[in-house]
Predict the structure.
Amino acid sequence: MSQNVLLFEPNKFLYSVFVTIDTAKRPFKTFLSQGTNLTDIPNRYSCVPDPRKPPNKQLFLITQPNRAAMYLIRTPDVIQNLFPNFNWNVPTSDKVLYLTFDDGPIPEVTPAVLTILKQFQAKATFFCVGDNVEKYPEILAQVRAQGHTVGSHTSHHLSGWNTENIEYYHDVRHAANLVSSSLFRPPYGRLKPKQAQFLTRHYQVVMWDVLSGDFDTAISKETCLKNVLTAAERGSIVVFHDSVKAAERMLYALPRVLEHFSRKGYRFEALQASLLHKTRRQVAAESQLMAVASA
Ligand SMILES: [Zn+2]
């Protein structure tokens, strides 16, 4: 039976692709109907545990009464499997986390992030907005000088859903050229299928499997911290924001995340092109080479 289950707030993230769901095939309805309130989340939210997952791999679906779910702290496998060309995490058995920071670089927040990362000898990846790179090239230079890697996040923080394809590609390309990187993260995780198809040909699209929620002014900084502590595991790609809006929660959670996972023997590394799926263009070029070699 096909049923309209408004699972995800259309204003947020990729997951809104699931607005219409065949509930006979997809397991989402199960955990929507088993919602339990968690006391540390403000009253107007409830937090729905996924009954299929063990406690240490819980997937948190944050919902508001009478509203659709807003976002997920952990990206469910079913979504990851739908977009296999995107990078959701780095498959590894090593104790390593990949922290990422979106929306900078800006003088108000990025240098503070660099200082904290340095204290823990941690490397990370910064998905930069082209506009900010043009305004603050010296901050981008600091990011690079400390050994972090950089990806692009469009020039004007555009949502793919609200932007004509050609305009979006130009905006992406401009930002990618500014930071000279093949790593790209779409703002809000929002891409139309055609854009996703085009972009994975030319870029290594980096999504995430753990969302800190630092951008959410309705959650406490403690909840933001707990989101990451609970959801991150070996090879996770974790989203933070070096933005003014997220700073209060992010600057609280970040050192505690670093402390917690350092104590458990984790390292923090920057994403490299070699760790990610090749672009579809690279894959095509390689298979052509193979064909020539075997001819
Ligand atoms: Zn962003």
